[in-house]
Write a structure and sequence with these properties.
Elements lengths: L2 H15 L11 H38 L4 H23 L4 H7 L3 H14 L9 H15 L4 H11 L19 H20 L17 H27 L4
């Protein structure tokens, strides 16, 4: 056997012994054990890393669940306020008007949205002030309920011509006639308003001249219910007790 063959055999043996698993058939038992322990340690490290990542995600998810639903919006709002205060301080330091500078950086869409939010927060119902305002509010409520028929509107506009938009000198007698459906809707609406007025009830004021036969407001309501349902049957007994002639 030549030296080349010996060198070739040694090289092939070395290359095969460096391969793990089935390729490392010529590895000793100690080397195989060390290789397997190395794989086992790698698996343990990967498992521990995955466990730590899972625990971290569970903790983060639990934190998000415990936070208020508007936490993200509150954070964005706080950041916006801090940024706005910094810009305001910079404008004041430069001697500029903050309101004007703020409007310069505001788009038309944002301005409209801001105006809508302001109007939505305002309460248009300020209660009764005078009969004129009450009539106007009633008119506005009735107008909101109207669902116009645009086809009928256009047909009437073409039919009446200039008289459709009547002026002081326009003659509209006989050109406009209400339909039976419109009259029925008006009658039904008037009937609904009447029923609503009949059902309306407001808190009555306290009568200082009335007899005090109660100890608190709840007892007063209870006595009023008793009087409403059984007053006519117990009137004689009550009168005898007040006169002192009860048996």
């Amino acid at each position: 056997m030549s030296s080349a063959d010996v060198d070739g055999g040694a090289g092939s043996s070395g290359s095969s012994s460096s391969q793990p698993g089935l390729l490392g058939k010529n590895m000793s038992a100690k080397e195989k054990y060390a290789e397997r322990m190395k794989k086992l340690r790698d698996l343990h490290m990967k498992r521990n890393e995955a466990r730590k990542l899972n625990h971290k995600e569970v903790v983060e998810e639990d934190r998000r669940n415990k936070e208020p639903k508007n936490e993200e919006a509150r954070k964005r709002r706080a950041e916006y306020i801090v940024k706005e205060e910094e810009l305001k301080a910079a404008c004041l330091a430069a001697g500029k008007d903050w309101e004007i500078e703020k409007l310069r950086n505001l788009s038309a869409e944002d301005a409209e949205a801001l105006e809508r939010r302001k109007n939505s927060k305002q309460n248009p119902d300020s209660g009764f002030s005078n009969f004129e305002q009450a009539t106007f509010r009633k008119y506005q409520g009735l107008v909101k309920q109207i669902k116009p028929d645009m086809n009928h509107y256009e047909s009437q506009k073409d039919k009446m011509g200039e008289a459709f938009y009547a002026t002081s000198g326009s003659v509209v007698q006989g050109k406009q006639k209400d339909s039976a459906d419109a009259i029925s809707r008006m009658a039904l609406d008037v009937q609904k308003q009447k029923e609503k007025r009949e059902k309306f009830s407001r808190r009555r004021r306290h009568d200082p001249d009335a007899d005090i036969d109660y100890i608190n407001e709840r007892n007063m309501k209870f006595n009023q219910k008793l009087e409403r349902f059984y007053g006519e049957y117990t009137k004689d007994i009550k009168d005898n007790l007040e006169r002192g002639t009860a048996v």
